[in-house]
């Protein structure tokens, strides 16, 4: 008899388990598995997020993910796979998350619309060169928040949960 651990290298070899009981009627020592049915953990939900750079150039980025912690590590270069647009300005901070999307398609549609509206509404830049980084950060967050307000009118947002971690108001 060949063990699964020999066929599939990632499989750990069997260990003694109190849930396993020997079948006394079998001569080749087959094992009977006694398993209690346990509820499956909730699957991860799709999330639309807004991040903001904490170094120059100060900018924002809107994205979609199932795992925000992993994705933020990617954007910050801690693990492989961040978007090219987020290489400058590291480290990134999470400014807002939106949860409650029924599937990836709905989350991506919301993300796309938020980006589109953000590009279309006016963004006023100050002309004075003595502005502080905090002022620029607040202006960018307010701009994204205004755009999000317009996007909310285009969707049924009753099932969405909006969590502003860096609220500009």
TrEMBL record:
Top-rank taxon: Eukaryota
Family matches, as InterPro entries: GIY-YIG_endonuc (IPR000305), GIY-YIG_endonuc_sf (IPR035901), SLX1_endonuclease (IPR050381)
Pfam family, one: GIY-YIG
Domain GIY-YIG: 44-125
Protein name: GIY-YIG domain-containing protein
């Amino acid at each position: 008899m060949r063990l699964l651990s020999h066929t599939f290298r990632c499989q750990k070899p069997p260990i003694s388990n109190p849930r396993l009981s020997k079948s006394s009627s079998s001569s080749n020592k087959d094992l009977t598995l006694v398993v209690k049915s346990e509820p499956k953990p909730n699957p991860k939900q799709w999330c639309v997020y807004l991040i903001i750079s904490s170094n120059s150039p100060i900018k924002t980025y809107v994205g979609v993910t199932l795992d925000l912690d992993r994705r933020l590590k990617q954007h910050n270069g801690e693990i492989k796979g961040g978007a090219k647009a987020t290489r400058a300005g590291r480290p990134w901070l999470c400014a807002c998350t939106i949860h409650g999307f029924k599937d990836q398609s709905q989350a991506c549609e919301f993300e796309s619309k938020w980006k589109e509206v953000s590009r279309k509404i006016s963004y006023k830049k100050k002309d004075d060169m003595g502005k502080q980084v905090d002022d620029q950060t607040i202006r960018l967050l307010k701009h994204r928040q205004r755009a999000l307000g317009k996007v909310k009118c285009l969707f049924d947002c009753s099932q969405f949960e909006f969590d502003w971690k860096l609220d500009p108001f």
